[in-house]
Amino acid sequence: MLVFSSPGGQRQHAPLVEIEASRLQDPFEHPGRADAIHDVLAVDPAFDVVEPAEWGTAPIEAVHDPGLVAFLERAWNDYQVAHPGVHDVVPDVFSMPQLMAGMGSFRPHDNIDIELGRWCFETTTPITQGTFAAASSAVDVALSAAQAVLDGRQHSYGLCRPPGHHAPMGLYGGYCFFNNAAVAAHHIASTAGVKVTVLDVDYHHGNGTQQIFYERDDVQYVSVHGDPARAYPYITGYGDEMGAGRGTGSNFNLPLPAGTDDDEYLAGLAFALSAIDAFGPGVIVVSLGLDAFHNDPTSDLAITAEGFERQGALVAQLGLPAVVVQEGGYDVAALGDNVRRWLIGLESSAR
């Protein structure tokens, strides 16, 4: 399988801390995650690891608010002018609509402290000096993997970091700055003129991907994830969220109970795949999170390495070209092999 990876790019986003559950803690999302995956795949002859092409910002702005792109490009430097020497930049104030209820809309503001709260929706996602470069590199990886499939590959894998599926059109957060899978899916749909399904198997619901495609009928979003009644991002991922407007019926969420094991997960995934089959896409983009692993510090599911391989094999039964884009997975010791096992399962149909 062709693997796109940018070790130098992904390492540029290197936060020292994150704020979660009212605590300062070591980041779950750090460069070692991608290094662990790269190191496993690079020594396996089943995988051909190459660098991505550079795509620029136009494909990102086709999906995201150009204002978000421009902000992320200059945010760290602007913050250093106001607050010299800060390594990890997080908002102090969030521009919530309720603050202006009954008083009109927010005034345009160029104060970096206010802008942070305009573009960010939570506290676990600091901006560092190399964040924009790393996030842009992750999009390059996803787009290069997508183009490989458009050029005739049956499967490809993009080792994206930082991940992307929590980033909606006009915000960043949830460790995500640009929505790598959404940019890839839009590129495929607009270039090839085919319907695309984004299948999200990360433990956490991809609120950003859902928001981007919620009113579109050319890109379906299908997600199997921890029930948002107890799992981040809490506000989206419920089963009654089915799309709107032209996209009505093109959004499918399957929340899972705590403790879901391999067999139970596979049964749910099979149900989700039936929705994909009914939609009839020409290509699928898989948002591959491995945080459903039984030992992952952010999850309460019970999936094993064998279970991940079975997941990939089940997806392969769709017989569709697949672009696999890396999302979460935070048990770093097991992460590389878990990714490898999922991809081996997917490739089982090609042997």
Short description:
The protein has helices at 7-10, 31-42, 58-61, 66-82, 112-119, 131-150, 180-192, 207-213, 262-279, 305-316, 332-347, and strands spanning 2-4, 18-20, 23-25, 48-50, 155-158, 196-200, 219-226, 251-256, 283-288, 322-326.
Molecular structure report:
- The mean pLDDT is 97.
- The chain has a single domain, classed as Arginase, Chain A.
- Helix 8 (207-213) links the parallel strand 6 and strand 7 (219-226).
- The longest helix has 20 residues, at 131-150.
- It has helices at residues 7-10, 31-42, 58-61, 66-82, 112-119, 131-150, 180-192, 207-213, 262-279, 305-316, 332-347; strands at 2-4, 18-20, 23-25, 48-50, 155-158, 196-200, 219-226, 251-256, 283-288, 322-326.
- The protein is α/β, with parallel strands linked by helices.
- The chain contains 11 helices and 10 strands.
- The strands form 2 sheets. Strands 4-1-5-10-9-6-7-8 form an 8-stranded parallel sheet, with helices on both faces. A two-stranded antiparallel sheet has the order 2-3.
Q: Regions with pLDDT < 50 over 5+ consecutive residues?
A: none
Structural class: alpha/beta
N-end to C-end Cα span: 11 Å
Percent helix, as a range, is 25-40%
Number of helices: 11
Major pleated sheet: 8 strands, parallel
